[in-house]
Write a structure and sequence with these properties.
alpha+beta, Outer membrane efflux proteins (OEP), four-stranded antiparallel sheet, 4 strands, elongated
Amino acid sequence: MRRTAALLLLSGAMLHGAPAQAETLREALAKAYRSNPTLTAARAGQRAVDENVQIQRAAGLPGLDAQGQLTERLIIPGNQLLAAQRQGFAQTQLSVPLFAGGAVRNGVRAAQTRVLAGRAQLRGTEADLFTNVVAAYMDVIRDEAVVGLNQQNVRALELNLRASRDRFQVGDLTRTDVAQSESRLALARAQLQQAEARLIGSRETYVSLVGEPAGELQEPAPLPGLPVTPDDAVRAAIDDNPQLQAAISNRQATRYDVSVARANRLPRVNATLGGNYSTFLGSVPQIAGGGFRIPNSAVAAEAGLNVTLPLFQGGRPAAQVRQAQARESQAIENVTATERNIIAQARSAYAIYRSSLEVIASSEAAVGAARLSLEGVRAENSVGTRTILDILNAEQELLNAQTNLVTARRDAFVASFNLLAAMGRAEANDLALDVGTPYDAAANYRRVKGRIFDWDSDPAPVPVATSTRGTPAQNATVTKPLDPILQQPVDRTRALTTGAASPNRN
């Protein structure tokens, strides 16, 4: 079932005690839905595609033309006694298409089919946007956690260095031990700066997609509705993937294009009705004699049937048919290529999603093991069997494991959303977003359908997407505490020693 209320859980329970006022993923997606320029531009493009139906239909509707002319002779030849000095002429003609070989009918069908293709492409644009927003949202969460971890690591190394210098003053440590602590602290500070730069970049990407800065972001709960097997993912993708649906509609449209091209070889029949009025505007002398009088004006009317039978066009109709057939062949192959791609995407997304879950489990185990290892090294250092370098290495291993864990959590959620997107289940309706009145692509089609007044138009376009020009530059401020599994006390309760009894001591 494509539409599932279970996806309401995108709002999710907060996993790690984030405060209730934190921004949710659903809120971020709703903001992007309303104001992202890529999506609003795609909607405008679809409205333009809607108009092609009426443009094609207009070729089969009656046409009414009027023409007028006024002539003033500046010099009248002397040998033209009855020449008019001025003359006015007006003509009106109604033309009604009766037969066009099916060109109008098939042109309308092609345009209608491309409207369906455009709607599917609009769905795909929406899903792509949401996929990017989810990635940006989770990038901010990950990078903020990484900054917090690096800040925690810097504080720990600062305490290490302070203790090392104190012990060096009393002769318990060597200058080498102090230098090792100084080196590791300098490296940690550089890593912190790099992490802060990545966080700023992630927040700027978030602003570009959502239109507003990221505040304190709530970590979402795992997505429901995910397939159990890769075959389930493939079946859903074939049924609902918007890219495949667009390709299928475009293929159908090219079939109608072939019929339109063939119509160029068939007769065209139009019924015509016209009338005209001419006047000399009193500029012709009135000559009376024998009851003869020259009229100054005249009215005429005519009706007829206009038949155009193409006999020879230099091979152009045949070339147009072959061209349309080639494009139909191209569209057929595009359907196959698109189907291949979405099958690969669905299977790959499923594999990445399942793998990411295993990575999370492994990373959690690695964090636990690294924390136990650090505690053991500290204890062994207190009795002289481990060196300062051993502690520094153990702390670095814990930091690496913690960083891998937050990265794995991000990757798992993004992979799960990518899987839903490949299955065609990552749009506003699927996610039950609170967007007020959702955009209805079919509503505009109904609005413009049948509007035949030539002077009709829409209001002048105005911006829909919001500008981020006034948004302040983003910073690397950490807005929430670390997950308890990532927190590491920095206080040193045990005395640091030289580790003189360590077998690894030089």
